[in-house]
Each structure stands twice: as structure tokens, then as C-alpha cells.
Amino acid sequence: MALLVRLLPLALALALGPAATLAGPAKSPYQLVLQHSRLRGRQHGPNVCAVQKLIGTNKKYFTNCKQWYQRKICGKSTVISYECCPGYEKVPGEKGCPAALPLSNLYETLGVVGSTTTQLYTDRTEKLRPEMEGPGSFTIFAPSNEAWASLPAEVLDSLVSNVNIELLNALRYHMVNRRVLTDELKHGMALTSMYQNSGIQIHHYPNGIVTVNCARLLKADHHATNGVVHLIDKVISTITNNIQQIIEIEDTFETLRAAVAASGLNTVLEGDGQFTLLAPTNEAFEKIPAETLNRILGDPEALRDLLNNHILKSAMCAEAIVAGMSMETLEGTTLEVGCSGDMLTINGKAIISNKDTLATNGVIHYIDELLIPDSAKTLFELAAESDVSTAVDLFRQAGLGTHLSGKERLTLLAPMNSVFKDGTPNIDAHTRNLLLNHMIKDQLASKYLYHGQTLDTLGGKKLRVFVYRNSLCIENSCIAAHDKRGRYGTLFTMDRMLTPPMGTVMDVLKGDNRFSMLVAAIQSAGLTEVLNREGVYTVFAPTNEAFQAMPPEELNKLLGNAKELANILKYHIGDEILVSGGIGALVRLKSLQGDKLEVSSKNNVVNVNKEPVAEADIMATNGVVYAISSVLQPPAIRPQERGDELADSALEIFKQASAYSRAARTSVKLAPVYQRLLERMKH
């Protein structure tokens, strides 16, 4: 019976569906923001909401958690005020807003919510007030008194001069022939108005703001006996044209109109959907260098990418933006849409000159600066916006500029400007060839690179890819910033000049006079073949000074013992390639001798076993060489470890002796073996 009692609530919840669970149906963003405002205002009494008011204006916002702590709207300071939540009123002598507003008809409710001007204009028409006071169920999106006052004089005059047609139609367009509460106002929906069934666009944003034809909903869900009233901050008007039709009739979009036609995007802009077009004016196109503009206009793919970068995937009215938010374009990029006071910003720049032109399939904001995506740019243009301008100047001086502005599929490995803080190399044949080896013969994306991959350069070299826990490196140079993928080329920003390998490890050591003693030692130890063959080695190479710093007797002893010399040298050779950019804080690298080397990096200084490296990242075809100023010694066996080894040996001997003891008593052949084991046990 107890089990049935415990299971009964679960059975009821499953039978009634998710909406009937204790949590109830999911709240809309508007309801969540209103709930937060209630929580912030509850210390002032029941049904009190905290409201953020922009200083110096009458603009008020229900607050969410982030805005509550920032105390800013569009970067402007706000003050917190406390007022009755929608649907409640104060009672003299009592705390908060304990009383629900009395229900009355729509006409009287207009006065309660602060839309007395709408009441006044309703009175002027002959038909509308009786409807608002009579039976039925209606929704009215009522403009505030301030909204009516902000209408241009000529618009207002045209309405009031013909009250039974123009004014009546305008008011009916604000009405819906049924009750619609905020939980039904979904993002992107259209409501049918009472004026010729014209559509009203609804947008319900994640930050809790609701717009009606881009007018912000100020006070919502004021119930009446015959419907509901929502107070909005603008007088709204009918929408007749789609985005494409607006482009075709606006003179300021002449260049945009031609570009859209050439790209074939007119079918998108006149089709179904809810888009935001950041529409570049003629002036925006004129700001672009003629060569760049002509190149893009003459390249259908680049042109399509350019225009798609101006189309947001959803409609975004200006009133919905109270802080920065990332929005995705049809091109796949993200734009940071924000605001600064009354100005909208794109990627932090106030380039929107006219906002909220409504279309049947979205909204248009006029912009006076072109938003060129990376995918429509040359390598030169990508580099101009990156921290690699010094490197690009070197490519230009070396006569390699055509590779960066043409249609060749390339990946440019461009060292960042800080690499050249001590000066740039002279442009000669060697430098030119080195720069050619910073150009990969394909347009790559770093996310597809893998460890051990080889890349062909325009200079004829093969470069290796090394993938480490926190680094992605090509030879000795590691990628320092996200890729920039252009029309034909991709830009990798690198943390240093790349050094292509110039022979095997043995070739590198032989070609550097600093390592002559090491080369002789390697040859004496019989390790020449190891360092000449294919492999992946990290060699910590002691310089001549390192050997000469050893006591002469110790050095002669080491060089005279080939086995011990080989053991010491193998301890200097790691069994994988580790370039300095892949080290991080600390890496324990296994050596060919068997023990591990501790390699660390701090403040651009590499240490091995806590000894500083004199020179890092000397690249070879089968590894990398670090010049070091001391000869490394394998870790000595600690006394405890030595004792453990002796104990293990003694135990093994004892086991063998025990096994032979019984047999030795009966076998003449096994007796000597038993005697030798006893002798070992004595030692």
C-alpha cells in the first residue's frame, strides 16, 4: 500500500503529460524576467516589481539577473525603482501592491495602463468605443501616450483629419479579434489584425523583451472583461513589402540592388522567413577601394559570401538590444550586435544610420560601412587586420606579393609582429627561399591537421606537423591565433620564424663547430647510425664547452669507456620530437637510455633537468636539437632502491637453492650447482 501511495503522483504526472507536473509549463522569457523583477522587489511588499530606469529618460525595463548587477542598459547607467507589477495596485496604508486591479472593459483598461491618448482617439471614431465596451474577446496593443506624442506632425494630422477611415483603420490594426497573452507570443509569429487581416509581427527574445512590429511591449497582460491590453512604446503601421521590394524602391540601395541581382540572393530576400538585413548604402560601397570592390563584384562566390554576411538568421529589432549579443549570419560568421545609448553597433562600431525598417519577412537596418567577411578577402587583406603586418611587408619586399593577392590556393605561415622586435632580416636569396617555405601549397584549416602530417611548401621543402596537448606546431613554429580563411588562402599566425630541417641530426651536429667533441663521442659510442636513420628524436646536445667543463679525469674516463659513454649519450636523446612550443610547464621525456628527462619552459627559457638550454629548436629531418651547456647525468640509484634490488636478488637465489637442495642430495651432477648457489647466498 505504501508503494502505491509513493507511485500515485508519478502515475498522475505521466497520465496528464509534462505540462501537468509540479513544475508546470515552461515559462516564457518575458515571464522569467517579470519573475526576477518580482523577486528583486519583494522586500517592498507583495506584487512589487523592481524596474530599471534609464537616467534622464522615461524608459523602463524589467530586469534580468545580469542587468541587475551591471545596472546598465546599452552602456548607460540606470536607477532601480519599485512599482506595482502588472495587474496590481496599491492600497492606502498597506505595504506593497496587495490589490488586484478591478476588471473593466477594454476602453476603461486603456486609461488604467497609461494609454489615455488611445482612449481619446477611440472616442473620436464612431464605431470603436462601442466595440471596446461591448461583448467579445479582443487584444489591443495600445501605444503609450509618449508614443502618440512622438509621431511626426504630418502623420498625426493625416490620422485625425479623417477619423472614421484613417484613424479607425490605424487603431484597428493594433487589435486582434481574440485574447492573446504573452505566453502565446512566440518569436517570429504573425497575428492577424482587425484591419483587413493584415499581419502583425511578434518577436519574443531570449532576454525577455517582446516586440510588436518592432515596438517594445512595456506593460503586458492587463486583463479586461472583454480581452487583454498590452502597452507598447510605438504607434505601429502596416507592413506591405518584403525585404527585396524595399531594396528595389530605395535609391540609397542602388549598388546593393545590383549586387543582390548578380548574386542571385533576391530569391532569399523575397521568400519566406524572418531575417535581419544589415543593408549597406551606396555610401558604404563607395568607402571600399575600387580594386577590392571590383574584385568582389566580379567573383560570384565572394559576392555571395559578402552579402550573406549582412543577413542575420533571425529578425532583430533595435528595441530588443540592451547589451551585446552574438548573432549568426547566413554566411556562417558571427557578428556582435550591441548598442551604445540610442545607437546600434556592429562589432563595436556605430555604423547603423537608420534602424527598424520593417518588411513582411524581417527587418532592415541601414549601415554605412561594408562588412566584408574573411571568406571574401585575399591573404593581403586578411593580414592587414592581423598582427602579422611586418611579415607581410617582408613577403612584398621579396617579390612574393602576387602569391598573396592572386587566386592560388595557399596557406601562409606568417610570424606575428613581436617576432621581429629586434629587427627584420635582410632580403636576399636565402631570406626569399625561407619565406617561400612559409607558404604551403594548399588552403588548409588547422582543425584538420594531424600529428606526423607533412606539408609541401612553395620553396620545395616538406614540413612536419606536431600536435601537443596545448599546441599545434609546424616544425619549430606554433600557431598563435585562430585561422583566418580567405577566398583562396588561409592565414596561420605563427609564434616565430619557421626553420625547415636541413639534414639528419648527425648532419646538423657535424655542421656546427660547437658540437665537434659530441660528434667524436657519438662516433666512439657507435651511435652514428642511430642519429642518421629515420626516426623521431629530441637531442640535448652538449657543446664543446660542456665537455671541457667536466673534470679532466672524469672526462677521460668517460671517453675511454665506450659502453658507459653510449649510456650517457643515450640519456641525452628523447624518443620523440618535442619542440619548445609544445613543452608547456613541464614534460617528462623518455630517453633512449630508459630514464626520463624533465623538460620545462618558463618565460621563453627552456630547461632540461633544471639546466637552461643555450639554443632551442635546431630542426633536423629526424628530430630536433637543443644546445646545452652541461653534460647531463642519469639519476643515481638511491640507497633504498639499491637495497630493494639486493633483496630481490637474494630472494631469487634462495628460491633456486631451495629447488636444487632436495635434488642435490640424490644427484652427483646437481651437487656442484647447489654449492655455487650457497656461495652466492653468503655474499
From TrEMBL:
<dbReference type="InterPro" id="IPR036378">
    <property type="entry name" value="FAS1_dom_sf"/>
</dbReference>
<dbReference type="InterPro" id="IPR011489">
    <property type="entry name" value="EMI_domain"/>
</dbReference>
<dbReference type="GO" id="GO:0007155">
    <property type="term" value="P:cell adhesion"/>
</dbReference>
<keyword id="KW-1015">Disulfide bond</keyword>
<keyword id="KW-0597">Phosphoprotein</keyword>
<comment type="function">
    <text>Plays a role in cell adhesion. May play a role in cell-collagen interactions.</text>
</comment>
<feature type="domain" description="FAS1">
    <location>
        <begin position="240"/>
        <end position="371"/>
    </location>
</feature>
<keyword id="KW-0732">Signal</keyword>
<comment type="subunit">
    <text>Binds to type I, II, and IV collagens.</text>
</comment>
<keyword id="KW-0130">Cell adhesion</keyword>
<feature type="domain" description="FAS1">
    <location>
        <begin position="375"/>
        <end position="498"/>
    </location>
</feature>
<dbReference type="InterPro" id="IPR016666">
    <property type="entry name" value="TGFBI/POSTN"/>
</dbReference>
<dbReference type="GO" id="GO:0031012">
    <property type="term" value="C:extracellular matrix"/>
</dbReference>
<dbReference type="GO" id="GO:0005615">
    <property type="term" value="C:extracellular space"/>
</dbReference>
<keyword id="KW-0301">Gamma-carboxyglutamic acid</keyword>
<feature type="domain" description="FAS1">
    <location>
        <begin position="502"/>
        <end position="632"/>
    </location>
</feature>
<dbReference type="Pfam" id="PF02469">
    <property type="entry name" value="Fasciclin"/>
</dbReference>
<dbReference type="InterPro" id="IPR050904">
    <property type="entry name" value="Adhesion/Biosynth-related"/>
</dbReference>
<keyword id="KW-0272">Extracellular matrix</keyword>
<dbReference type="GO" id="GO:0050839">
    <property type="term" value="F:cell adhesion molecule binding"/>
</dbReference>
<keyword id="KW-0964">Secreted</keyword>
<feature type="domain" description="EMI">
    <location>
        <begin position="45"/>
        <end position="99"/>
    </location>
</feature>
<dbReference type="GO" id="GO:0030198">
    <property type="term" value="P:extracellular matrix organization"/>
</dbReference>
<protein>
    <recommendedName>
        <fullName>Transforming growth factor-beta-induced protein ig-h3</fullName>
    </recommendedName>
</protein>
<keyword id="KW-0677">Repeat</keyword>
<feature type="domain" description="FAS1">
    <location>
        <begin position="103"/>
        <end position="236"/>
    </location>
</feature>
<feature type="signal peptide">
    <location>
        <begin position="1"/>
        <end position="23"/>
    </location>
</feature>
<dbReference type="InterPro" id="IPR000782">
    <property type="entry name" value="FAS1_domain"/>
</dbReference>
